[in-house]
Amino acid sequence: MKVGLFIDTWYPMVDGVIKVVDNYARRLVKYCDVVVFCPDAGHAPKALPYEVDQCFSLPVPNMDYSLPVSALDPVFDAKLLESGIDLVHIHSPFTVGAAGLMFAKIHHLPVVATLHSQYRQDFEKNLKLKLSSDIAMDGIMTVFNGCDECWAVNGGIKDLYEKEYGLTAPCKVRLNATDHVPVSDPAAAAREVNEKYGIPADATVFLFVGRINFIKNIDFTVRALARAKELGLKNFRMLFAGKGQDEDKLAALVQELGLTQEVVMCGLTDKPMLEKLYSRASLFLFPSLYDANSLVQIEAACQGTPTVFLEGARTAATVKPGVNGYVSEASEEAYARTILDILADKEGYERICAAARKDLYLNWDDVVRDVYSDYLRLLGQS
């Protein structure tokens, strides 16, 4: 079997969907041949353990992403025609993903799609007019409804697509996972993080990992922490690990709210240091209403670090509030008070930390084994 994974973004950009496809491909090569079809955004990793075929792309002003234009790249089309793939798995519904669907239909191949994102939010933010958003949604749902099967990253996303987006293709839940592992010595990890970022040993640490983009609600986080400080929160640090288009805006907000001592911008870090950051943190603060099912919350759970979500967040669908994570009312005041309440209940906090690791930590080896079984089923080989 040879599987084609289709995605409309790629390295050097790093986001959850790219990491999912990379982790799929790295593990699928143990079972079958794999090729990733994606845009060429420049400076992508060269030494990958799977085949990558890239199409021409154009940078988009004021965006973290580039625009793939596979239809204008005859070399890409030729590689796709010669690929010999037996099954198409699309991870985005735009130009590259749509090319994968069209190829599958022409050559009578099974095609599956993973539903990673809440696309209407993006369209309403960037296209402004409701008519334009509706047209764009019709376009992507034509792609998804043309698939033999769709995989939603959690039950909340499955409901969203079926009840609000008009998904008619068969759909099942396929959870995301992580390639992180628990740190072997949390005390040593804490000392290393403290030394690297100038954190007092007795400080409470909060963490965010991901794109520094206000669409992730990170400005909400800073304002909530400013309120928590007014309410009595002392001796804490808020670490932001990542890069993005709103770094200057975030720095200005931090200064405006008087949190320059408490907020630490870590930039991009490698996986071993990320694992140590998660381990050092008491809470992973993730008030995003944008994400569908972020990998970072699973990475945090791997280290026994629970996440604080907002009510209404689709990405919180895998969490049981008060059991293996926390869900706050969607206001900065409520979020601040939730943080203070968590820190005041040490026994309950320790119980939830243990449950987060037990319930929410999934590894990619197990997930991709099941993925391969589903590929066989779709090919009629199981």
The dominant shape is: globular
CATH level-two architecture of the largest domain: 3-Layer(aba) Sandwich
Mind telling me the CATH class of the largest domain?
Alpha Beta
Quote the beta fraction: 15-25%
Sheet of most strands? 7 strands, parallel
As a whole number of angstroms, the C-alpha radius of gyration is 21 Å
CATH-assigned homologous superfamily of the largest domain: Glycogen Phosphorylase B
Give the domain tally: 2
Mean pLDDT: 94
Low-confidence stretches: none
Number of strands: 15
What class would the helix/strand composition place it in? alpha/beta
N-to-C SSE series?
EHEEEEHEHEHHEHEHEHEHEHEHEEHHH
In the CATH scheme, what's the topology name of the largest domain?
Rossmann fold
Strand order of the largest sheet: 3-2-1-6-7-8-9
